[in-house]
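Quick one, T. Sequence first:
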Amino acid sequence: MTTVSLRLPDCLIKETDKRAQELHIPRAEYIRRAIVTLNMQVTAEQRRRRMMEVSRRVRGESMRVNAEFNAVEDAPDA
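Structure tokens:
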């Protein structure tokens, strides 16, 4: 495990200590959990953005295919 040194405002440390005590866990564990939680949130947001982009591309292709089907259905000799 790697050691990390941080400079944090006193008010943030006080609140962190208070929350950690409420959860009956050490400060370091509380901070680890906070980092894990934020990493998961960022990953989920990145995944959501990728899915939206892929969805836009697929939607465009679907609209093109649907237009082709409509043209075939509307053709008098179809």
